[in-house]
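A quick aside before the break. I want you to see a complete sequence-to-structure record at least once, exactly as it would be stored in a machine-readable document. Don't worry about memorizing anything.
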Amino acid sequence: MKRLLLFNPETEYALASGASFYTPPARVEKLRREQQLLPEAWAECGDMILVDDDSELASDFRLVEWKMLGQVFQENPDLIVEPWGWNHALIRKLKDHGVPESELPDAKTMDRIRELAHRRTTVTLNMLWNEMAPSCKRTEVPKELSTIEDCMEFYRSNPGCWMKAPWSSSGRGVINTAADMTDVLVEQWCRGILRRQGSVMGEKGADRISDFATEWRMIDGKAEYLGLSAFFTSNRGKYISNEHMGQSKLKEKFEFECNMGIDDVTALQKKILEQVLTEYEGLLGVDMIVERKGNLRPFVEVNLRRTMGMLHIIS
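That is the input. The structure line, written in tokens, reads:
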């Protein structure tokens, strides 16, 4: 089956807005323009890549400009649209350019994807982990904070905590309160997120030594494990890059640092994902933290989209 692939790194920003019309920040728009051909990394024979009109790019795959979409779908009625991630604004734009509604998520499905992409989903996932895992493997559970008083109380009670926007991408919308933050700056940041997104997610600090992610595909309510990835972040939690390492080496690294084997971790994650993400279809990544004493934070983030880690899964 032929696919129409699209790199749209602004998807979490658009999810946060929830609007059908959205303009991303200039830096994100610049990234999108510069990396329009990134889908070459996962494209297969017959796939097409959606690019800007008059972009004058060259590829071994067929490039489709937005102005060509109506004609392309007339010629290829079974073409599957596969973006980096879904959001309301992308669906509206695709419809406006001639993509049949039958090839796109409907409004109810998109609302549900947006709801599941909210960081409060990690509360449910981590609570289920604590119910299913041995008592010695239990983890911290994030807390959703709905008022500035709740935010500041959590911050003062948990030195070095992390405060997160409900929807954000690659470490943006996240503050590490141990990294040169003051009470005033934390309060200002939380007030802004509360005003724009309605709540703030609070997480106790972690004595982090490594960041890992498990990569998955959800199909008909079943979670298929694709592989393990590892990545680097700044002390403020911003994504920097992925480690380029084979699966056997990554497994060895993970199990050297963590007090759980990766097979045990993924078996438990699979059960939990299949219990919570019953309505989601597609790719997703689960970010994890390994702490200095070997403790695991198994559901730090759940990214309901393709991830950079998937580009680095090698044998």
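Two observations worth writing down. The two ends are 25 Å apart (CA to CA). The chain has ten helices and 13 strands. We'll return to this after the break.
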